[in-house]
Write a sequence for this structure.
């Protein structure tokens, strides 16, 4: 074993995780690559060719890198545990009138757990991924902070990780910008990696059509939810919709309702199969609460503190006061109203560049 120790690297086949593995190998770590098979494309009901991290091409690309660099590579089949937890939750959340965050659940409950379990089996002290984020130890806690490349920062999807996971995690790309990683891939002799396109879709819905995915997964879903009412915020029926699971908070396009002014989905009521529509002002909120709270930088924040709160991945965030109310819940008071607060999505809190923690947005009662 090398002096730096043995490290298990999650390799999807994309440029980021591949370069991360090569970097660690060249730094002197005893690298073991692992590719997680999370789903079967055929079971998703998609119409496109299989692509992305679980495709045969991606697995072959990873294996070729491992062979050339001389480190072991394994394929880990976690389709059963992934499907039972992540996909079932994805479906259940839409049926409950919420908008799920599958990447957070996958990181928190599947990938890190699976990686650490195999790391122990392979006598690996650390695990590593190609996420653009940074990690350090401070005040006896392991703290995640934003990656150097603000355009690629992925700290938002890592809020659910526990301290015992962070203690053994490395993010080799945290101090790099994406263009530098592409240049590095070329210099390493892997030009094809630099040419690979990136996917921002949910891995098990690669055609980005979650509605078709739901119809495929839930028997007779269309018949069960078709014909509910579009209703204004003051109770006026505007027409019928195609089923409440097929709409999301803030949606404007595809409503097929014309009243002379723009309308947006402001609330979803699964109990009555009702989709409530309003104007842009009706979308604005100044408060929210989160469940499943996980704190990273601090043990607790019962006294409250000022933070930057992000309710979507690609947003700059809004200044707010956050106050922990119990072990798993937290209240947010925005200093300025925010638009399209979607229950089920993540609210993630920052202290400067440091990740305070996060939770899932609760549906108002």
């Amino acid at each position: 074993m090398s002096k730096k120790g043995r490290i298990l690297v999650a390799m999807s086949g994309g440029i980021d995780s591949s370069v991360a593995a090569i970097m660690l190998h060249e730094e002197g770590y005893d690298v073991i690559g692992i590719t997680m098979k999370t789903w079967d494309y055929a079971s998703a009901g998609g119409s496109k060719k299989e692509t992305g991290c679980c495709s045969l091409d991606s697995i072959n690309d990873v294996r070729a890198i491992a062979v050339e660099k001389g480190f072991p590579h394994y394929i880990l089949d976690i389709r059963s545990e992934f499907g039972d937890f992540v996909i079932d939750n994805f479906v259940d959340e839409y049926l409950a009138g919420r908008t799920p965050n599958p990447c957070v659940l996958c990181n928190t409950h599947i990938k890190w757990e699976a990686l650490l379990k195999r790391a122990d089996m392979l006598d690996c002290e650390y695990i590593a991924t190609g996420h653009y984020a940074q990690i350090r130890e401070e005040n006896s806690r392991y703290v995640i902070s934003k990656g150097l490349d603000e355009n690629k920062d992925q700290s938002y999807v890592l809020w659910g990780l526990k301290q015992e996971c962070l203690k053994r995690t490395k993010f080799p790309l945290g101090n790099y910008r994406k263009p530098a990683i592409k240049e590095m891939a070329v210099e390493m002799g892997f030009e094809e990696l630099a040419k690979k396109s990136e996917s921002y879709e949910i891995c098990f819905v690669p055609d980005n059509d979650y509605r078709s995915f739901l119809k495929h997964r839930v028997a007779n879903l269309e018949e069960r939810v078709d014909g509910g009412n579009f209703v204004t915020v003051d109770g006026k029926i505007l027409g019928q919709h195609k089923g409440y699971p097929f709409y999301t908070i803030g949606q404007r396009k595809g409503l097929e309702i014309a009243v002379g002014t723009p309308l947006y989905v402001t609330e979803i009521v699964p109990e009555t199969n009702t989709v409530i529509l309003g104007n842009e002002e009706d979308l604005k909120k100044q408060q929210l609460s989160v469940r499943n709270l996980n704190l990273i930088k601090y043990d607790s924040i019962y006294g409250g503190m000022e933070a930057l709160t992000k309710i979507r991945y690609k947003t700059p965030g809004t200044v707010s006061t956050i106050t922990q109310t119990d072990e798993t819940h937290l209240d947010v008071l925005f200093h300025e109203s925010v638009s399209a607060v979607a229950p089920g999505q993540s609210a993630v809190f920052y202290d400067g560049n440091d990740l305070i923690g996060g939770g899932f947005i609760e549906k108002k009662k």
